[in-house]
Amino acid sequence: AKNLSLLDQLKADGFNTIHPIPPYDNATIFQQILDKTVELGLYIIYDMRTNYQNLTTVAQQVNAYSSLPNLLLWETAHEPDGNSDPFSAARDTYDLIYQMDGYHPVSIVLNCEDYNFTPYVEGADIVLEDAYPIGINATYSPVWHTECTPDFGHCGCDNCKGFLYDITARIQTYKNRLEILGFDRTKTVWTTPQAVGSGAYVTSHPLPIMLTNCLCSYWSITPTGQQWAAMSMTSLNHGATGMIHSNLL
Questions:
Q1: pTM exceeds 0.85, yes or no
Q2: Superkingdom of the source (predicted)?
């Protein structure tokens, strides 16, 4: 693989986890990446977002990668609420993974503030929020050319105002819901502070590692380093127990 030195740089910068985004089309390159992360002592999040609803494929992946010495967790459903995935899909995959593995937690990422939270979180130990408020137009979508209201429209950050408070509110809302549902001791909230902004939607890269895959035209600017740090600290101060930053390498 090319540019594996990027992993060395991430390690030197203090990161401890890598989240490759599927599809993993080149098995040789993907294995080189895995081997390099083991060498550097970096954890891996294994992502099934493109095929988590195919339980046969899920079983094959669990069999292949559950013994990785640096596997941190499985990610299954990525924004199932925004994509209107079947309500039972995340839970079905969760149950299968626990039958086969049981040692590694399962995460999902939710896009919406309040769309069918309960059935989706039943399929996860870790619930990630991805409110990206920096640089949005909170009332009009530049992508869909429609207004954004509490009931209609997509402006890149569901029911957001375009301030750091949006992250505080999202984390606290998710925590409160987990507590009400009786999941406060068995599920936790992580965050994905925004590190992307103005730019094109990138679908390929010489080193196919991204901390998330993101349509960037909703955001007119890219967060500054200070804004990135503020979002990170705000997330931790308000109860997020883990953090995966969204960016391209």
A1: yes
A2: Eukaryota
Return d(Cα 242, Cα 223) in angstroms, integer.
Answer: 20
According to the model, what pLDDT value does residue 231 have?
95
Question: What is the C-alpha to C-alpha distance for residues 129 and 132, in angstroms, rounded to an integer?
Answer: 9
Q: Is 128 exposed, middle or buried (0-12, 13-18, 19+ CB in 10 A)?
A: buried
Whether domain 1-124 has CATH 2.70.98.10: the reply is no
The Cα–Cα gap between 141 and 154 comes to: 6
User: φ, ψ for residue 161 (rounded to 5)?
Assistant: -110, -10
User: Is the previous residue joined to 23 through a cis bond, with omega within 30 degrees of 0?
Assistant: yes
* Comma-separated ranges of CATH 3.20.20.80 domains in the chain: 1-124
**Is-contact 110 124, C-beta < 8 A?**
no
